[in-house]
Amino acid sequence: YCKPVSCVRWGAVSDACPRAVVKCCDGEEFPADYVIVTVPLGVLKNQHDKLFCPALPAEKVDAICKLGYGYVNKIFLEYARPFWVWREGDIRLAWSADELADRCDWVK
Length: 108
Prior knowledge:
Elements: E1 5-10, E2 20-24, E3 29-32, H1 41-51, E4 52-53, H2 58-66, H3 97-100
Parallel strand pairs: 1-4
Antiparallel strand pairs: 1-2, 2-3
């Protein structure tokens, strides 16, 4: 959809109403059974009271406020065929401190 969202109305559960409605800044609305919100933590902390209608429950707001900032690194690997045995162990990636010493960014 690639549109900025102004409000997520949620909590309406009935046969006639969707469980949520996502309202975009241009006025267009999208009904949904579920909404996955993937805004940065800073935006969520700053805008949760404006973004959700009705407001989120106090325990959810408290949990959001208690979340801290930090580094998260994700690596996605894609293979034509798996080279590992399914459900037997896991894949671990490791680099030595020397290999990482001069690396300050990761690129795709």
